[in-house]
Amino acid sequence: MNTKHNTRLPRLVFIFSALTLERLGYYGFRAILVLFLVQATAEGGLGIATNDAISYFGIFTMLSYLLVMIGGFCADFLLSRINTILSGAVMSAIGLFGLYLSFSSATLLWPSLILIALGTSFFRPAIWALTADICRGVGAKQDGVFTLLYLGTTIGALISGLFVGWTTQLIGYSGSFIPLALFMLLSGGLLFFFPHITQTETHGRPSTRTLRSVLTPILIILFACGLSCTFWYVFDEISNQLYPLQQSIDLGGLTHAIGPFLTSFLWLPLGIAWIFVPVNSWLKLAAGILCLVGASQVLTSALYGNNDQLLVQILVIEVLLGFSEVLIAPVIISLVSQYGSQRFIATSFAVVIFAGGLANSLPHFLGPMTLTSLPTIISFLLTATTIILVSVGVLRTLNSRKITSPQSEQLKQ
Fold it and tell me: Out of 136, 216, 267, 386, which could bridge 151 as a Cys pair, Cβ 3.0 to 4.6 Å?
């Protein structure tokens, strides 16, 4: 047992490093894709019209969420976690190499984009499933582990912007795809060539099946999907309506940087705190929802109230949004890891990722969030918070009961 706990940390460090490298390559690619598509062919681009390039980007994003189910299924049933991760990294790298060559042969564009979408769809659920395998049995401490993994995602996204800004000046947009592809290969190679990682996978079957053991993973997935979709819809809508307010204050772009930097600084201390001082996961979700409700209320005041304290209101909204993201996004994944079916864990993660992607489509069906829709959304979130708090009490009551089997009673006698 001690050996298992001693080897858990280096495995997680390698997973953190691999995820950071993969996200660096992925977000770096996303940052320059449209610019590469619209750049004139004489300058190394494809010379595509701006509207068409944006449409291509939207289709690619949609594919990234649709294909994630294939990646989760492969990680659970067809390939091992490691092989799925490596396959995803290799497919993304080949796709990026294909984009580099597409400036001379435009027919490579869509096959390359499909490979990248498929690669990230393989990588994400598989690496989360591998993390769940390593951390199985540690309970709410998984909140801290997945929070730190989100830190890796944030670091990769932040570095990617700086990195491609530098490489595009040196070797252009098409040339920047080459180092991004190398990052992808390195992310898969880190896990594949580290032998201890491959020994952590556990695909054991449950010894007994009860109604509770079958229903709990299903209910958890449904809950996680609903909360993930709703949270990202409200989060993005608040951010979109906050943007004009940030523009109205001339601080040299500082108001736009507050949110990302604040969130970046929250991941590490809270991730460590959740590991050493585990707090009930459901209570974190409730606190995160309340932060989101508070942000929407302050936004309403800023949009339709007195603007004498607009800067303070913007700062409060950014702080509340930052805390809501840190308290909700990784904890949703952690709950799926804690209560989901071990046999279907990668597929479960894929379903939650897909639900989060649906949040991008909700504004097209529900319309943008307005003053009249805010009370409905707030009521829904407050109701969800109440349900979560009641669920905490019910789960604690169930866990406190000692259920003994007839065999154990006979042994006692």
Answer: 267
